Amino acid sequence: xxxxxxxxxxxxxxxxxxxxxxxxxxxxxxxxxxxxxxxxxxxxxxxxxxxxxxxxxxxxxxxxxxxxxxxxxxxxxxxxxxxxxxxxxxxxxxxxxxxxxxxxxxxxxxxxxx
Length: 114
What we know:
Layout: H1 2-20, H2 29-101
Helix pairs in contact: 1-2
């Protein structure tokens, strides 16, 4: 998510320079009118830049909130896993004790009869 914000910011910066500082290509009326049109577009683009800056700020806050939520989720999972494992060990201990002491269990060596 953070990469999306930086990509949009870089594109906005590149576009701003290309649209706000145009000079007429020639000294005729058509070139002057086109340069004026593009300059007006560049001025409107500055309004977009202000809105884009607000959106970028919102995006940064959103990414921070997502990261904070992910960290809280991971902490909660870790905190809940430890007591659950202890309870599982407590409940499975009798069964493990029975299977560990039975003949032929993998934890015991088979007895040799001479």
